[in-house]
Structure formats: structure tokens, C-alpha cells
Design a protein that fits this description.
The chain is of the alpha/beta class and about 270 residues long. It contains 9 helices and 10 strands. It comes from Schaedlerella arabinosiphila.
Length: about 270
Amino acid sequence: MISVVIPMYNSKDTIFDSIDSIINQSRYDLIREIIVVDDGSTDGSSQFVSEHYAENKKIKVIRKKNGGVSSARNAGIQSALSEWIAFLDSDDIWLDEKIRVQWEAVTAHPEIMFIGSNRNKENIHWGRKYDDKRKIYSIDLTHLLIKNWPSPSSVLIKKELLSITGLYDESMHYAEEGDLWNRIAILNELYYIADIYIITGAQKISFGESGLSANLKKMYQGNIRNIKLLKERNKISFKFYIFLRIFYGIKQIRRIVIIKWITKFRKKK
């Protein structure tokens, strides 16, 4: 069975669609509970969820002081009763077959403890083919550091794995999933299905437009922090660390240029 963890902060306008996308899953029977963690919202999000879904016994709302998305996800993980945990951000939605397809994948491959999927209009086939029939790919730490993947809202993860790696670092407010994914990849390969099963941020591009990823500088600093930690723990070589510093710098410049171009284009329209 699966516990779904949704961190929520002032999400009254989007949380309805997120929760409904869980309820509308073709294998909703696999969902044991939906844990909505209100991270100190001030827009009445908790009351909205409690009232709108009053008859749904699977939905549980946890209220806490604002501490950021990492602390909200951790609160949900610690409260979860199931063997498996799925994440969903409060402005993202799952497509109807998401849980069914992932459940079939982990049932067919019991060694898989972490599995995500593609999102939006992206067509990513990165890593090593693992199960061609189910379009499953595996990612090791090197793959992950080149392409931080997959998106948290796509992930189904065994709670047992998190008990080994530790939870989200609550001191991090940017690139926090990268830090956790890195720790997981050190011990266990990550997997994803190369089909689209989630829509994130209303199909905006994955950086620079909304949410925490809008702060490109902070995201860059978070990614640099992550690889510094790996170097200090001797999980990557000094040469690879230098390569990543250069690579991330080029990516940062590219992202800034793209956002400036998009902003300029929209102003003209």
C-alpha cells in the first residue's frame, strides 16, 4: 500500500486539482492515505481541504509552523503508515495511470526501491535501459549529477530506503531533492519510466518561472553545495567535481539566457 505526501503552502487555488488527480487514479485502491502537510499556510488551505474532502477518510491534514518544503515532506514521511511513499507537490497533478504503471513495475522488479517518470512534454531517455518492455531506465550517481532526475512529484519510494539514507535535509530550501537523490544513488540505483505520468507547475518549463526553481541563483548554489558534499565524503573524484563546477556554470548561463529570451518574447506579445 502507498501513502501520498503533499507539502502545501498557500495552495488553495491548486490543491483541489492535485488531490483529485490522486482520487482519480485507476488504482486508487492502492492508496492507503493522502497526507497533506500544511506548512503554515495563511490562505485557509487547510480549512478548504478539510471541508471539501470531509467524507474522504483517506485524507489526513497535518498542520505545522512554516519550515519549508523539506520539513513538510519529512513530517509527512514520518507520519506515513505505508511501506511505499509517493510525493506530489500541491501545484502538480498525476495522470490517471501513474500509480498503476509504477506499481506494476515494482511488482515485476522487487529490487526497485525508487521509481519516477517523465513529466509534461519532456521525452527523456537518460541512463541505462533496464526493462525495455516497461520503458524502465536506471540511473546511477554519475547520471544523476549530469541530469538531476526525476521530479519529486513523479517518485514512488520505499520507506525502508529512506530509513537508511535519511530524510530531506531541512536546512536546504533549494535543490533539496538533489541532495536526497544523491544519497540514495550512492547506495541504490534510481529508476524511472520513460513515459509522461505527471504535469508539473501547469507545464511551465522546469526552472525560472514559478516556485522555488524560479530563483536560479539559489538553485545553482544548492546544486554546488550538493557536489561539494559528495567531494568531501569522497563519493566523487576531484576531477569530476571540477568538471561538474564548469558544467553547472554553463547550464546556469544557458538558463539565464533562456529566461531572458522568454521574458522578452512575452513582453512583445
